[in-house]
Amino acid sequence: MHRLLAIGFATALLGTLVTSAPAIATADEVERPPASQVHAEGRSLVDAFGRTVLLHGVNNVDKSAPYLNPGDGLTITDQDADLLTRHGFNTVRLGVSFDGLMPERGRIDDAYLERIAGTVDMLAARGIHVLLDNHQDGLSNIWGGNGFPAWSIEARPLPGEPNPGFPMNYLMPTMNLGWDEVWNNTHGVLDHLGTALGALAAKVNDKPGVVGIELMNEPWPGTPFLTCFPNGCPDFDRKYQAAMQKLTDHVRAANPTVPVFWEPNVTWNQLMPTNLANPPATPAISDPNIVFAPHDYCIPSQLAIYLRLPEALRAGCELQQENTWRNIDAFTARAGIPTVVTEFGDGDPTVLSSTLARADARFIGWQYWHYSSIFGPTGRPDPFLGEVGRQLVRTYPQATAGQPVQLRFNPEGGDFEYTYRPRPAARPTEIYVSDLHYPGGYVAEVQGGQVTSAPGARIVTVETDGAAPVTVRIHRPDSTGDDLPEAAGSAESGSSGSVGAGSSGS
Fold first, then answer.
1. Beta pairing class for 449-451 and 459-464
2. Is the peptide bond between 187 and the residue preceding it cis, with omega within 30 degrees of 0?
3. How many angstroms separate the first and last alpha carbons of the chain?
4. pLDDT at 270 over 50
5. 397: which strand partners?
6. What does UniProt give as the signal peptide span (predicted)?
7. CB pairs under 8 A, 24+ apart, for 375-383?
8. How far is the C-alpha of 113 from the C-alpha of 475, rounded, in Å?
9. Is the pLDDT confidence value at 9 over 70?
10. Residue 63 to residue 485: CA distance in whole angstroms
């Protein structure tokens, strides 16, 4: 709940690039082609060229009007987008608001849609895939939250009802009645939301840079929330999945091909498994272009942030995260659809690295919470140069002409190893080489293929020699490349603090 260059010239020799005199890459060297359309294919996201896509990126979410106002110190700008591209990020989870889409009953704000479309175009032109996230926290400004417009909910706080603020305000009885209105479609609230999301989907119908539309951030069950503890709530999830399908139908009517992202209900963040796509409790997902969008937060760490409890509580994070990823594995095994962790991280590097290591092991993409503009009125230094940022900026395969097998990266020294099984694709494998981890240049070695990019390129391209597995290793010239994390399963089988702003999450 929560909420935070390859440098060097190289020479080609027998399929190996060896760096010589290092040089800082210029802006021109890190330009990327426009983002191409991505779709779900089994458990993978696949681009228009037939390559498996891995997303590494950030959230940028504006929770109050006027939404998407460049220069406000939060909204991402052209300069921010250039910074993200330079550091290898290829996705942004861009917050949109039901309150902004339909500020009055039945009226779509076309000017807001234009601002959304303009931001999508700006990011996509730099090769950044945009997830449009219908964001809410605390349901509505009625309870001091954001998301649902006040006209769409009839429940109101009682006189004198205590409001402890986010996230504890989810326990307020009247807010729970408001959530019941959502799931029961009282007064047509889901219908209105569906209309708003349909208008959003129509606006971006011709924009291949949109990687998906996320139907709702961190949905709360309402009055049945206690039934979700301790083992999940199949009765509520049955109603919830029907609501997700209803909203998906609205999106599909306007945009048949855009991926639609479904989150589990937010008790997931309190250790509870989801019953989405879990027959007989809930039906299997029939739409072939649905993506699972869980979050990975640590309750002890969050308590330290929100309730100012001792940071020593974070010692329990490893157990919670292990539980979260077991739940991800269980869902993936039964649903067979892609997963992107659309929020994680709260400024604690240990919690952060745990998420990243588990995601690497499963070849699962992620979007870090949170990035706010550093080019606003006050201005801030590059946040990715700190301890947290150096975990996030990684050497990784952005697009693979094949099936991933194993991915390992050591953010301490930069040693990287990636194995995949090749398959035909219209473009080669592309590996972003971190701009932070190789101050003296890098060495790129390939077995089963060859490097085809220019010496010292930020994006290493790899062509295969045949059908045998391909292994790519990238490391500093003074390293053997063997300082790698222990292998934690196969990507084939799926086994296994805020940047630029404050440190708390969504």
1. antiparallel
2. no
3. 5
4. yes
5. 431
6. 1-25
7. 375/77, 375/79, 375/80, 376/71, 376/72, 376/73, 376/74, 376/77, 377/71, 377/72, 377/73, 378/73, 380/500, 382/83, 383/499, 383/500
8. 44
9. no
10. 38
- What percent of the chain clears pLDDT 70, i.e. is strictly above it? 90
Q: Count CB-CB contacts under 10 A for residue 52.
A: 26
The catalytic residues are: 218, 343
> What's the pLDDT tens digit per position in 219-239?
999 999 999 999 999 999 999
Check if the beta carbon of residue 97 is closer than 8 Å to that of residue 138: no
| CA–CA gap between residue 22 and residue 329 (Å, rounded) | 42
Please list, residue by residue across 244-276, b when 16 or more beta carbons sit within 10 angstroms of its beta carbon and e when fewer do: bbebbebbbebbeebbbbbbbbbbbbebbbbbb
Q: Do 190 and 246 form a contact (C-beta atoms < 8 A)?
A: yes
Q: Which two tokens stand for residue 315?
A: 């010692």
The residues that bridge with 38 in the sheet, in sequence order, are: 47
pLDDT at 71: 81
Q: Is the pLDDT of residue 502 over 70?
A: no
How far is Cα 33 from Cα 428, in angstroms, rounded to an integer? Answer: 14
Q: Are 294 and 262 in contact (CB under 8 A)?
A: no
Q: Is 442 within 8 Å of 476 (Cβ atoms)?
A: yes
E-strand spans in 222-292?
Answer: 260-262, 290-292
> 87 pLDDT exceeds 90?
yes
Number of H helices, E strands in the chain: 10, 23
Name which of 487, 220, 214 is nearest 339 in CA terms: 214
pLDDT of residue 308: 79
Angle of helix 110-124 versus helix 78-86 axis, rounded to 10: 30
pTM of the model: 0.93
Is the pLDDT at 121 greater than 90? The verdict is yes
Helix, strand, coil percentages (3-state) for the chain, rounded to 5, are: 30, 20, 45
Distance, in Å, from the CA atom of 333 to the CA atom of 362, rounded to the nearest integer, reads 12
Asked whether residue 419 carries a pLDDT value surpassing 50, the answer given is yes
CA pair distance 155, 348, nearest whole angstrom: 37
Neighbours of 397 (CB within 10 A): 24
What does the pLDDT look like over 295-321, one tens digit per residue? Answer: 999 888 877 777 777 877 788 899 999
pLDDT at position 488: 62
When pLDDT is averaged across residues 367-385 and rounded to a whole number, the result is 92
Tokens in use for 155? 């429940």
Residue 85 contacts by C-beta under 8 Å, 6 or more apart in sequence? 30, 31, 32, 126, 127, 128
Which residues have a Cβ under 8 Å from the Cβ of 272 and sit 6 or more positions away?
228, 229, 230, 231, 232, 233, 265
The overall average pLDDT reported for the chain is: 90
Beta strands in 119-209 (DSSP E): 129-134
